[in-house]
Amino acid sequence: MNPPIAPSLTSAGFGENDQFRFRIAGDPGVECIVEASTNLVDWMTLATNGLLAVSLEVADAAASNHPARFYRTVIAN
Question: Sign of dihedral through CA atoms 75, 7, 45, 68?
Answer without folding.
Answer: positive
